[in-house]
Fold:
Amino acid sequence: MMEAACGTPPRIRVAVQYEDFDPGVEEACLHDDDHRIGGCGCFVGRVRADNGDDPLLALTLEHYPGMTEKALTALAGQAVTRWQLLGVTLIHRIGRLQPGERIVLVLTASAHRQAALTACEFLIDALKTDAPFWKCEERRRSKQWVDAKTSDANARSRWGQHD
Structure:
């Protein structure tokens, strides 16, 4: 088992769920009176609308149960090891989501802010390429699966090799 500073195992929470989440509640649970934590990094991703001629109505996310959670746990473990985090929360929603709805939460906790912020950024980039999710865009005139983006691969590559 990985250990954070002072020999205490880091708190890692991974969830793949249909239900919405409350970032404030999740941050409070991650912190949970651990006074070693000096900083938390937080990212809340939402389904983004676009204003093209065929606007996005909804985004449906599918996953491979078991494999997806394992991949997210591995990413959290990489972040804990690399930045000596005291905790990580990764929540990713699945199902049909409309523009404006929350889709992903990344929380990181460490003794110092820089480690928490950097690890949060790493996890955001890694989720886009390393987590097995499939996205289908539903538009007024079309419905299509979303291909991987070169920009996501480029963002992930700046962190070095996959562990």
Remarks:
- The helical segments are 23-31, 67-83, 113-130, 150-157.
- The domain at 8-154 is CATH 3.90.1170.40 (Aldehyde Oxidoreductase; domain 3).
- The chain has four helices and eight strands.
- Strands lie at 11-17, 39-46, 56-63, 87-93, 95-97, 102-110, 133-139, 143-145.
